Structures are given as C-alpha cells and as structure tokens.
Amino acid sequence: MTKHDPLRFIDLMALHKLNVLHLHLTDDQGWRLEIRRYPRLTEVGAWRAESQIGWNGAMDGRPHGGYYTQDDIREIVAYAARRHITVVPEIDVPGHTQAAIAAHPELGNLGVPLEVRTTCGIGENVLNVEESTIAFLQNVLDEVIELFPSPYVCVGGDECRKDQWKASQAAQRRIRELGLNDEEELQSWFVRRLGDHLATRGRRLVGWDEILEGGLAPGAVVASWRGDLGAVAAARRGHDIVNCANTSVYLDYRQGPGEDEPVPFGTVLALEDVYAFEPVPAELRGRPDAARVLGAQCGVWTELIDSNRQVDYMAFPRLAAFAETVWSPADRDLPDFRARLSAHLGRLDAIGVEYRRASGPLPWQTRPGVPGRPEDPAAWQATIDSWTSNLRDLR
C-alpha cells in the first residue's frame, strides 16, 4: 500500500466511526518503516525478489517492495488525528523478523546471510536473545515513538517458532543464566525487556496473545486473536485486552463457501457472523474482569490480498457490521441492520468502494486458478484446538 492507500482507508474508517488503526509495519516478507539509525532495514529489508501467487502457488518472478518514510508516517498520523483516529504501530518480534535479519544478519541465530522471505506462512527464522539485539530494538522503538503519539505500541510476539532457540547454545546459555524454565519463558523475558523500555517513555506494550504463554508483566495489553480464550485468560490475570477473535472478525477469511470466492482462506465468516460478534467474551460478561476489555479490532491480513481493490472486497460490507457490534449493545437487530445497510451500500458505491455483493463476487472480483487455503468446519475446529491448548491451561 502506498501512502495514499492508508489515507483513503482512514477516511473509510472515519465514515464508520472506527477510531484506531493498527499498522503492522514489519514481517518476514518486508520491513515497511524508515529507521534513520538503521537504513539497511529499508535498503535491504523492504524488498523481496518475488511474491507467491495465492497459497503455495507459483512465484510471480516480480521484485516487490517499498516502505513509508518518516515524513509519510507523520502525514498519515496527522491525517488520522484530524479524523479522531489513533494510529498504533507494530514492530513484530521476535518472530516474523526474517526481513530484519536479512538486513542485519547479526540479529539472527544462524550466523549466515538470509534473503527477505518470499513465501507465505510462519518462518523459522527468529531474532537471537543477545543484549546487542535488545539494544537494537530499543533504538528502533525510540524512533517509532517519535513518530506515533499513540499510548500503545505493539511488539507482536505471535507465531514465534522456538526451534532455533532450542538449537542455539547462546539461547540455552541465556535460559540458564536467567533461571528460566524453557523457551516460552525466554520469549516472555524478551518481551518484558521491550515493555520496560516502552514504559520508561510513557507507552504501553501491546502483544498478541502468545505473549501470555511464558508469563507477562503487569501493564501489558493483550491482543487476543485465537478465539476468546486469550481474552479470558488475560483478563483473569489482570491484563487489559483488545478482542481480535479470528473466529469472528478476521476479514481475510472467505465470505462464502462458493468456489468463486477469490483466493479463499480459512473458515467462512459471512456478514451475519461478523454482526454476531460480541466484544466482551461470554465468560467475562457480568464479572469485574469485563472492564478489562478496552475494545475490539478486526484484521485485514494481506498475504493473499494483492491489491487495494481486493482489500475493499474483503473489508466491506463486513467492516460496517463490525462497526455496529463495537458501538451497540448486545440486543442488536440483524434485519434492521440489513435494511439500513442497503442504503449504506449506495454511499459505498458513490465513493468507489468495491465491496462484496450479497450475491457473491462480480466477475472481475474473482481470481480463477489462484489457490487459497479454505478449511472445512472439522479442520477449522482442529486448528482452533491446536492454537488454544496452551491458553486453556492459563485460564
């Protein structure tokens, strides 16, 4: 997305009274934010040799890249602020960091050069746990907080594979030195170091619900994405939460079961499924812990969404349903919403939003032959169970 694309999306958010934009600025496949102290993060890390077409599909052979300059970010943040929207940055660590390691191999565990990742999925390359790496990230975060006045800064913590730490003599030595039990607690120590650094600068750390698994310092906010279990576990342990349940509000998931859905991914989340979302999980309602729910967030992850027109298709009109769930009481009226939505779709037409029709995709919104990764209900439930086994223990 060029600078103009998030500016346009900010206008669409304001139209729907959504007031926080969470920008995921780094990943294995690209580093998207200028850091003055470390120019190689964008000179090298912002560019990959090619991209995958669909899920495990062919490679396109086209170099891809780009990043936001610090002036771009200042413009985006100011533009959002004028529309009463806070922009929350994410620098995802210690996993999802292959682009950073490609730029700075000393951050990795292998001591060998890497390329910016070109394929989808969860990579095995993660940051090492040396003091020099912690210092590097603290310097990065210092520049991040100069650009983003948000009280919250997300450091990710999600989907971090521990294979390299298990094989690393340096990581194992660090575990022994710190008196930790395992690699999960090592990640917790890593995240706490960054949280302490942010706290000294008046900011609160946000991380995805995996940061619960090795223990978490007070004050951290948990973005609970793997169903409701992370939200319940975090709230009961005294942490504020943002409910991002992938079972309800991940807008990269397919919108219907039909074969014409473009690059279908995950389970089916239809408009009415998003409308049924409750920001406060059932296990917390009526309890003091319910006050820990700061808000809710839907996600538009773009591994399989390769154009802004496709972002429109995946986000709308489900984003309108999400907006109503977070601004309305639980006794909502779906037929009434549908009646009002029919008028609202005319507004989206007028401003050029290429939303999904109730009848399905228009011919140019399909992507015949591009493979996705749809999951049937049984496989989907198995995925949820595997994701949340650790979180059940935390409750």
From TrEMBL:
Record-linked SUPFAM superfamilies: (Trans)glycosidases
EC number(s) given by UniProt: 3.2.1.52
Species for this entry: Nonomuraea deserti
InterPro entries attached to this UniProt entry: Beta_hexosaminidase_sua/sub, GH, Glyco_hydro_20_cat
Name of protein: beta-N-acetylhexosaminidase
Active-site residues annotated for this sequence: E159
Gene Ontology molecular functions: beta-N-acetylhexosaminidase activity
One cellular-component annotation, GO: membrane
